Amino acid sequence: MTPETNHRMPSATPPSNEAGELPQPYLLFLGDIVEPGYAKTAFGLRDWAPERCVGEFACDGAKVSAGLAPMTPEQARSAGARSMVIGVANPGGLIPDGWLPGLLQALEAGLDLVGGMHARLHEIAVLRESAARLGRRLVDVREPPRGIPVASGRKRSGKRLLTVGTDCALGKKYTALVLARAFERRGLDVDFRATGQTGILIAGRGIPLDAVVCDFAAGAAEALSPAAGAQHWDVIEGQGSLMHPAYAGVSLALLHGSQPDVIVVCHEHGREHVLGYPGLLLPSIEETIDLALRLGRRTNPSIRCAGVSLNTAALDPAHAQRVIAAESERLGCAVADPMRGGLALDRLVEECLA
């Protein structure tokens, strides 16, 4: 990526936490979750920062693994870990009481704690008191910067791409990271802009949009992708879904504030219901494209959709290729699974840059 000094965010919105300041490497904590969709922080760090991950630790009853070596906090500390990262993004961003023994065990073992939940580590008395007694750090990365302005709606120089989803936890961050790297390989001036806790942990900077007071969320999106050179690209990590019953607000603020020239719509093949809402059908890809373009024109009349990022992780390679080709023909646009690469991804990248 381009150096941060080239396209620095305004002084009112400093990066939440620089990667170099976080105590690493990490032990990834998976809590007691049974739904893989809620382990996206652990999966994201495993896939995009594997050199910073020494193992994983979970509570009794957990049924999700990141595929790393299981370790106790004591073992992880002996293996060189400096902190335990909460690798879960559960509904509401809560830290259940059942997690506290494991978190306290990590502090006792000599590890700092890094959290990206809405619930702040330092606001939990037993963790705060134990950390103070043991000389350990509690690091909350889901802490928005001070001084975020209200959105201006004014057009900014530079080029922007935003990933938009039909739902949560289906590939918006991965798509943005893959596209940013693809742009960089083509010699383009590009920055990945993180808007959630996992992206911030990966990139070392960003603004957690869902932790910003709603009146200032679009302003935060503007500050996250400031005016830049005419050929510079910001590839912005999307959040939520414009039709999500709980999280549509942050998605709309991000769309209006980032003023994308290009959107890529992300969808998981086979997902029929909103994650965590079994009675609520997922909007179609076509509905999502149409709504994103209609709403996005409010701050960028030239917004366009370059194509679709299709998560086919549950399919074998041959089946995935057939599905990707069929969806591309059905929708009449570029469709690719960024994690599989290939000619389909090349076409999607070309459409983004067209």
Automatic annotation (TrEMBL):
It comes from the Bacteria. It holds the Pfam family DUF1611_N. InterPro entries: DgcN-like (IPR011669), DgcN-like_C (IPR035086), DgcN-like_N (IPR035402), P-loop_NTPase (IPR027417). Residues 1-20 are annotated as: Disordered. Residues 71-144 form the D-glutamate N-acetyltransferase-like N-terminal domain. Residues 150-343 form the D-glutamate N-acetyltransferase-like C-terminal domain. This is DUF1611 domain-containing protein. It comes from Luteimonas soli.
